[in-house]
Amino acid sequence: MTLIVVTGMPGSGSSTVIKGALILNEKGAEFTLLNYGDVMFEVARDAGLVEKRDGMRKLPNEKQQEIQRLAGDKIVEWKKSTNLIIDTHCTIKTPSGYLPGLPDYVLREIKPDQFVLIEANPDEILARRQTDKTRERDVEDEKGIEEHQFMNRAISMAYACLTGAPVKIIQNHDGEVEKAAKEFFELMKVLPKA
Amino acid sequence: MTLIVVTGMPGSGSSTVIKGALILNEKGAEFTLLNYGDVMFEVARDAGLVEKRDGMRKLPNEKQQEIQRLAGDKIVEWKKSTNLIIDTHCTIKTPSGYLPGLPDYVLREIKPDQFVLIEANPDEILARRQTDKTRERDVEDEKGIEEHQFMNRAISMAYACLTGAPVKIIQNHDGEVEKAAKEFFELMKVLPKA
Amino acid sequence: MTLIVVTGMPGSGSSTVIKGALILNEKGAEFTLLNYGDVMFEVARDAGLVEKRDGMRKLPNEKQQEIQRLAGDKIVEWKKSTNLIIDTHCTIKTPSGYLPGLPDYVLREIKPDQFVLIEANPDEILARRQTDKTRERDVEDEKGIEEHQFMNRAISMAYACLTGAPVKIIQNHDGEVEKAAKEFFELMKVLPKA
Question: Which of these, C108, C116, C71, C84, lies nearest to C1 by C-alpha position?
Fold first, then answer.
């Protein structure tokens, strides 16, 4: 089955773009949407490591890596029966720096067919974060967002190299979410599906 | 034997730089020049998958990856008896995004000793493409070329990390092709050769 | 035990930042500081390949890679009994281009838990190099330093992907070395230690 990994930093609007594409795809091939962070949280909660989702980022890196791996196992199970879209992050900004969202040992397990980076301009991302009260956000200014986006692009090419899968960049500028959703939908149509 | 991988996006003039260096090298160690795309095309044509070279980029990624791998096998055969220069792309811009030219499974097979990126300024590349009517070109503007060049540099460092081989950037600015060819020739002289 | 890899290009002041952090850490967990270049030099000198440290960069890449690997073996030995900080380079600028400081085969051996990039502005790095007479420096201008820093960031994300370890960027601007040292010290406190 086909596995598309969609990444976007907080404020990029990646989840909204995916949902828009799935609506356009209503009559197309079946895709199941999973949020990597949700899967990780379920794994961590079941193991008694955290109570709230935001507690995840306070876990030591070693624990986060173990949970990443266990979440990967779950995704491999899902992939056996359905096409998947995984909503996740290229890197997670932690007090220890940029933590890779999809390290080698996870990539080799889940074997993505396609990577998608949802991006926006740093000022757009910053403004969206300031109005987003639903989750705790790390403090990051425009220069920090630019640096973060650089690191995301760089690591996406390591992901591409290790898997052979292509990386598509989709811009989700203010007021253009439908255009971004359509672009992602067109990509879904091109991919081979079971 | 020594294997040098030279990459450049369409309009970078990488093929011209290589040819210039080979003329300077006339009395030097023997090098055979192979174009990865040509080898891939031969493989694909022999398998009845395409008729024309430009049809390659319209194949599904899965097929392109299979052909990449088979072309890698051919290169390993050549490498047994001669020093090689492979003319190829860091990434290929496809409708699915940036497809890695040398994914992990190809790199581990062909084991390059040296990577070379031939670059030019985005405006130079754009102008060269507009006068180049010999092959179909995807539409890409200056900003797109800049992004493509970024992704090429990023993935070249993944290639370096996986192989241990260094990455040399050579600028091929307008009117300076001889300088670029000489720079590449100097690099060829430094490399250990069988 | 914990292994922190700290990288900085010549003039970034990485060694000074590390020393400052170790002073702050005086009463903390034990860390042994190793310079990868020193370990490589010892290995190379013992093998009769070089006499002076600066002779290292004139060795063919193949020899440098062999020495990298042997130095990795030594580090693995150290790591069995102490927490380590390795002072090294993301990439080394050689006549053959950007040579990876930590290729895949070294990373898999030493298994770092944390990467740190010590950076400064290109003009700061250039000025520091001009007053540093203790070692031979390759000629590199501001644009070259910017390019080098780009390649270092890019390869650091390949390192992160292959190991699962995070990458922390610490700015060491003029007159702010104590701030940089404190930032690194805070990072040392967060890491799990044996």
Answer: C84
Q: Give, in words, the CATH class of A3-36+82-190.
A: alpha beta
User: Helix, strand, coil proportions of chain A in percent (round to 5)?
Assistant: 50, 20, 30
Q: Phi then psi for A169, rounded to 5 degrees?
A: -95, 125
Q: How far is B43 from chain C (nearest CA, A)?
A: 30
A113 close to A6: Cβ distance less than 8 angstroms: no
Q: Which residues of chain C does B167 touch, with a Cβ-Cβ cutoff of 8 Å?
A: 97-98, 151
3 state DSSP class of B92: strand
Whether the CB-CB separation of A98 and A91 falls below 8 Å is answered with yes
Q: Which amino acid is at A46?
A: D
- Kindly tell me the sign of the dihedral angle through the C-alpha atoms of C125, C129, C134, C136: positive
B164 contacts in chain C (CB < 8 Å): 65, 68, 100, 103-105
Q: Are C180 and A50 in contact (CB under 8 A)?
A: no
State pLDDT tens for residues C72-103: 999 999 999 999 999 999 999 988 999 999 99
Asked if pLDDT for residue A135 goes beyond 80, the answer is: no
For residues C168 and A97, give the distance between their C-alpha atoms in angstroms, rounded to a whole number. 4
Q: Give the torsion through C-alpha atoms of C64, C66, C68, C73, to 10 deg.
A: -160
Mean per-residue pLDDT over chain B, rounded: 91
* CA pair distance C114, A95, nearest whole angstrom: 12
Q: Which residue of C has its CA nearest to B189?
A: C96
Q: Which of A161, A186, A191 sits opposite B159 (nearest CB)?
A: A161
Over residues B17-40, the mean pLDDT reads: 92
Q: What does the alpha-carbon distance between residue A181 and residue A161 come to, in Å, rounded to a whole number?
A: 26
Closest by Cα among A146, A59, A69 to A103:
A69
First to last CA, chain C: 5
- Which residue's structure tokens are 């990072």? C187
DSSP element (H, E) containing A114: strand A114-119
Q: How far is CA C184 from CA A94, B10, B76, C172, in A?
A: 14, 43, 46, 11
Rounded to an integer, the average pLDDT of A16-45 is 92
Domain residue ranges of chain A, discontinuous segments joined by +:
3-36+82-190
Residues of A in contact with B62 (CB under 8 A): 113, 192
